[in-house]
Amino acid sequence: MRIAVVLAVVLSPLISFGQSKELPDVLKPDPDLVILAESSGFEVAKILPRGTFAGPFNAYKDEENPLGIREGGSYYSFTTRNHSYNKIPQIGLEKGMLKVGFYGLSYGFVTALGDIPLELVELDTFPGRYLADYKPPYLYSDIREEQKRAWGFTYESFKFVSRIKATAQATYLVRAISFDEADKLVAFKILKIDDDGAITIGWRSLKDFEVPRYAHETDDVLREKVAALLKNDRYVGTQFSVSKGVITVRGVPRNSVNQLTRDLQELRPRSITMSHAPIE
Q1: Residues 221 and 202 both lie in one domain
Q2: d(Cα 147, Cα 242) in Å, to the nearest integer?
Q3: Is residue 131 located within the same domain as residue 110?
Q4: CB atoms near residue 121 (< 10 Å)
Q5: Is 235 within the bounds of a domain?
Q6: What is the DSSP letter of 35?
Q7: Does residue 117 lie within any of the structural domains?
Q8: Quick check: pTM over 0.70?
Q9: Which of 208, 243, 264 is the last residue of a domain?
Q10: Most CB within 10 Å of its CB: which of 155, 238, 243, 262?
Q11: DSSP of 217-261, one letter per residue?
Q12: CA nearest 218: which of 137, 103, 105, 116?
């Protein structure tokens, strides 16, 4: 949940999402593939089959894995450009299958385009347009239903799935949605499949979307709960509105900001916007 308080500005330290240390040799793509990708304006990444470097069961830290990367380089994040499962994983490789959507409310769609040049993939033609126009639901229960739908559906002759076979020289589109973390649309091509099943991909970012947030209650339920909450004498003069899980409150008494923030957080909305100014 996101809280935007228009009363003070807090500057957060910059966060680096790059690999925390030098990439292990086993994850370094072939130099010729790097040159090929870079000459075409693409990025390149190598992904290992899951289990190649297996850590202890329920290991959560990178250093617990033999490779020094949680899940042993079998995942990759287009957002953080990192292989660690702890750094917003958006594509994974397991038993020859590419997969998207791994934990919590994360999910996504992958579709195969065949052996076409990566540079020809655009958003103004289907299925790129469909994935670019797609809007994730914000209500928790609806997101859970959409996760089930992501296992596979067909739209205008294109199959969208969360698991798909990794095929050499095939080009794919993936929309990876991780609530409270990232939402990204990427085109990628499998440049090589090694004998051990590892793949090297060339990829290009097509679109970054606003970080998705979710709410547990419908707007009507949230309105009722906020209205009941604001009957407290400490919130006299406070006005509010609710839209798509976002609670906006204005005219908040200065000495009640902290308490109101805590009270609203307990309602688990999509986000909270708060200010002293009254709603016009």
Answers
A1: no
A2: 25
A3: yes
A4: 20
A5: yes
A6: H
A7: yes
A8: yes
A9: 208
A10: 238
A11: S-HHHHHHHHHHHTTSGGGTT-EEEEETTEEEEES--GGGHHHHH
A12: 137
Based on the fold, state whether residues 241 and 183 are members of the same structural domain: no
Query: Residue 257 carries which side chain, given as an amino acid letter?
Result: V
Q: Quote the tokens at residue 125.
A: 């033609």
Max CA distance (Å), the chain: 70
Residues 64 and 187 in one domain: yes
Q: In this structure, what token pair is assigned to residue 211?
A: 């970080």
Quick one: 266 and 127 in the same domain?
no
Q: Are residues 45 and 179 in the same domain?
A: yes
Task: State how many domains the chain has.
Answer: 2
Give residues with Cβ within 8 angstroms of 125, minimum separation 6: none
Per-residue b/e over 202-239, b at no fewer than 16 CB within 10 Å?
bbbebeeeeebbbbebebeebbebbeebbeeeebeebe
Domain that holds residue 230: 215-275
Tens of each residue's pLDDT in the chain, 280 residues: 555 543 322 223 333 334 446 899 999 999 999 999 889 999 999 999 999 998 888 889 999 999 999 999 999 999 999 999 999 999 999 999 999 999 999 999 999 999 999 999 999 888 999 999 999 999 999 999 999 999 999 998 899 999 999 999 999 999 999 999 999 999 999 999 999 999 999 999 999 999 999 999 999 999 999 999 999 998 888 999 999 999 999 998 888 889 999 999 999 999 999 876 555 5
Sheet of strand 91-94, all strands in order from the earlier edge strand to the far edge: 75-76, 91-94, 97-99, 163-165
Strand order in the sheet with 239-243: 2-5, 271-275, 246-250, 239-243
